[in-house]
Design goal:
Layout (H helix, E strand, L loop, with lengths): L2 E5 L6 H9 L16 E10 L2 H4 L9 E3 L2 E10 L14 H5 L7 E7 L18 H21 L2 H11 L3 H8 L7 H10 L12 H15 L2 E6 L6 H11 L3 E3 L2 H12 L3 E2 L8 E2 L5 H18 L4 H12 L2 E7 L17 E4 L4 H8 L1 H5 L1 E6 L4 E3 L10 E6 L5
Parallel strand pairs: 1-4, 1-5, 5-6, 6-7, 10-14
Antiparallel strand pairs: 2-4, 3-4, 8-9, 10-11, 12-13, 12-14
């Protein structure tokens, strides 16, 4: 399962974001260091389910289908808030950051209204710069990553150089405790122009540049610009967008309110929708709150941004696609007759053998070819899977 780390300085609404994305109740207050242990839960990315196009009724098993939208689970890790010096252990920062070792992508929740300082203390809206907030949090994450890469570097690099092992194999072995792949290491070496250079000859600056580049490649970051409904946020969000990629305006408090209202049967709301429908009788206070969400959040930004942040993290920053493996390419079913049961997240550029390996390792070992169930054509290992593909794997080895 894809792992998404939720990071940010303390007191910016990370816990509200996490709760709204998972509906797990966690402690939330307007003060620093409310969260002192990581919260772990399941959120979902959203994509169009093919069943409507194919005119069949789906029966999901590893995911959920709501009103024609397929929701695929991802693991969320809400890391307690960071403060300057976190990578050195300030505010228990090292312990907090180590929870990110297996994260595939990061969602950085930022106070776009500038209403909390770098220590997370409340200040008048607009008095703290969220661009600076992004800089210091990224510095803390990069320094933490650097500490992992550089640990015992001199001894490691000398041993690696004399062993005759490939530099990538050596680095893979050293960094086995974090989510780094061979292709990511190769890319980082290429981008930093360190490929082919003996590891023991790297300077400390080389090491810092390499670790930062590797972190950005293996653990990309998107920005959830929270409190987007406040007046001070509008200009700050534009500034964030001009400085960084993957910036999503967010109102986590609005998403949480809508999910709770939906759970209570007061509204019909599907996470990620641009609107909601009132179903039950509302109190004046509830009417006012929902009117505020509709006017200040939905009409202004098109959504609350929470679902969009998860989608941008997985489909944008990680560049994943969704593929539906089936065993009957005519009926789009598995062996039990379930229609489009599994929706699998795959890296862009994956091929049918990669899909076979994700379904079951034995299928990949005996892979012969695949069938594109939409077009009813045979495809080989060189076929690049596309988002929304429905694929039957043909193998000498049956799935066990």
């Amino acid at each position: 399962m894809i792992e998404v780390g939720i990071i940010g300085k303390t007191n910016v609404g990370k816990s509200t974001f996490f709760t709204s994305a998972t509906m797990i109740e966690v402690q939330m207050e307007n003060r620093p260091f409310v969260t002192i242990e990581p919260n772990v839960g399941v959120g979902y990315v959203r994509t169009k389910c093919p069943h409507s196009e194919l005119k069949v009724n789906c029966s999901p098993s590893n995911s959920i289908c709501i009103d024609g939208e397929r929701f695929i689970p991802v693991r969320l890790i809400d890391v307690p808030g960071l403060i300057p010096g976190a990578h050195e252990g300030r505010g228990l920062g090292n312990r907090f950051l180590d929870e990110l070792r297996r994260a595939d992508v990061l969602i950085h929740v930022v106070d776009a209204s500038g209403s909390s300082d770098e220590e997370g203390r409340p200040v008048p809206p607009g008095t703290y710069d969220p661009v600076e907030e992004v800089k210091f949090v990224r510095t803390e994450v990069n320094q933490w990553f650097f500490s992992i890469v550089s640990k015992d570097w001199q001894k490691f690099s000398r041993t690696a150089d004399v062993s005759g092992k490939d530099e990538v194999d050596s680095l893979l072995s050293k960094l086995s405790g974090i989510s780094v792949s061979r292709s990511e290491l190769v890319r980082a070496l290429r981008d930093t122009k360190l490929s082919g250079t003996k590891l023991s000859q790297w300077s400390e600056q080389d090491l810092m540049t390499f670790s930062t580049t590797l972190r950005e490649i293996s653990m990309p970051t998107i920005i959830a610009a929270n409190k987007s409904d406040l007046p001070e946020s509008k200009r700050n969000i534009e500034r964030l967008k001009s400085n960084y990629q993957h910036v999503i305006p967010v109102s986590a408090q609005s998403e949480l309110a809508l999910r709770k209202a939906s759970k209570s049967g007061l509204v019909k709301y599907v996470p990620g929708d641009s609107d909601f429908k009132v179903l039950g009788k509302l109190s004046p206070k509830q009417e006012e709150a929902l009117r505020y969400i509709k006017e200040r959040v939905m009409k202004e930004h098109g959504s609350t941004g929470v679902q969009q942040s998860l989608n941008e993290a997985v489909f944008g920053a990680l560049r994943m696609i969704v593929v539906y493996p089936v065993e009957d390419e005519k009926k789009f079913t598995n062996k039990d007759g379930n229609v489009l049961p599994d929706a699998l997240l795959m890296p862009e550029g994956s091929n049918p053998r990669d899909l076979a390996a994700q379904v079951h390792s034995e299928l990949a070992k005996g892979f012969l070819y695949a069938i594109d169930a939409r077009r009813k054509v045979k495809v080989g290992e060189d076929y690049k899977l596309k988002d929304g593909d429905i694929i039957k794997i043909v193998s000498t080895t049956s799935r066990t």
